[in-house]
Amino acid sequence: MGRLRTWLGVGTALAVIGLLLALPTPRRPAAAAGPAAGAFPIPAILPDGATYTPTLILDRTTSFGVATSSGGQRTDLVVVPATGPPRVLQSQSATEGGSFDGLGYTADQFYWMHTLSDSAGQAHVTLWTARRTGGPARQLSADIGAPVFYGSQYDVQPVGDRLYWAAAEAGHPDRTEVRSIPRDGGTVTVQVVSGAWAMSRWPWLVSAPSATGGPTRLHNLTTGQLVTVQAPPNKQVTCSPTWCRLIPDNAAQATETDLIRPDGSDLRLIGDASAAAIASDVALVDRFEVLMSIVNSTGRVVISKVTLYDIARRRSVLIAPAATNAGARGDFLWWSTGDNETLAWHGLDLRTVP
Amino acid sequence: MRRELHALVLALLGGTLLKLAVTGDYKNYVKVGARPYLIAASVVVLIIAGISLWQAVTRRLAADHHGHSHGRLDVAWLLVLPMLVLLLVAPPALGSYSAARSGTALRAGSNSALPPLPDGDPVHLSVLDYASRAVFDHGDSLRGHHVTLSGFVLPGGDGGWYLTRMVITCCAADAQPVKVGLTGTLPAGLKANDWISVTGSYADRQDKDPVNGDPIPYLSVGSTEPIAAPPQQYES
Q: How far is A167 from chain B (nearest CA, A)?
């Protein structure tokens, strides 16, 4: 009996050792491919050495933005392909101190507004267009009024065969001009609307950030419908027709970023005190909020992480752990890494995020 | 029972070493040239284990059956733990976590003569070779050449990336990183530990490693390609 037990014990031990040795080597699963896995590169340094900052992205191979020459003397409005030289639509010297705003496009046109100030400090704004297929830029109109720009994709908005924008009315802060012009040029039409409004997704206007007093409202230009946003008190409210973003309007409250439906339902906390939403428009593609949080401000450049709050899935996803800049507009998010000669831009089509 | 236990632990040790040597996983822990020694050592250990076990069993059978040993825990059990870790967890080769906490293994001031670059366009170089030429030779032997390096990426302090390889003299315990800064357009969505192959040219720029202050040379990136982690991740 003892003999059997000895052999049985040794045999069992050897079998366990053999089993352990025969186990396949554990393999770690490849890191889960997050949304950033679908990112694509955008040129940051153009062939002539100019530094490029995208303002909007048309598709994976084309973006539209501003390039500053390597010496800083010139600023160009450029269309940048994935490879090769950019197409310069308009140039200005740094001494002119102008700006390009309201950039947009249709299937066959680019358009933008160019602001220049005269020696008296008076701003002069003109509306420009260029064919996407090529050719020189053309001024559409100088009868622009006093347009208001909020960095929104809707600042200058194509609707049918016209371009629309909102302008302030001189001496009447409580009124807004909704101006429009045929896309190929012509007479500017002005519709005066009571209240301080900004353009939102057509046909909606939203209370302008400059509007004082009273709750944030949405105004349907086609039907005349007025929607008063049901937001909690002491919040600074920014709205699209489907979602509103809330941040505290005074330092006494805990700093956080919330989302809420215009009717006051479905309140979500999407960012803590360290996070700030970077897109002017709320809920890109009706699904995402882009947030940046500073992770290191002690170096030469500030490093932030970029996260995407997914409204549909109620979760945040890390996009870039160490970004130096970021922007988001329309269907796309873009962010940079590095700076100076290590600067690199990366784009992400939000419609492709699973 | 104690002699049998010792023999069985030795068998597990020898078997584990032999398995690592045969499967190639030993490259995660020691340099490639150690393979013959690993095989020889594991065979010797297995032979000793076999003999010890045979002697222990036959002795036990000959000496009646009253031999139950009781007492303190045998320290031989402790040797089982690292073997179980190797077999059940299989720690991977050191990567960006270790590299970020160790200074680059280049020390400025060496004037050792470097041989001419190998043939090829681009020239395939190790990260260590490129970094040595860039720092000690001030890039003289690299200028005018396209080079291809491969390694894992490590986030730099200012949002850039370092191409990195761990260099070992003997084994993972003495591993040190060698870092090369990357300038130019890099693939979007890079994450620490991603392996890439980079083709580019010498860039006349250096960083100081924040960990030890040693120089980190730069490579101007022409093109990149994501690659799988190679079986041999360490340079030596």
A: 38
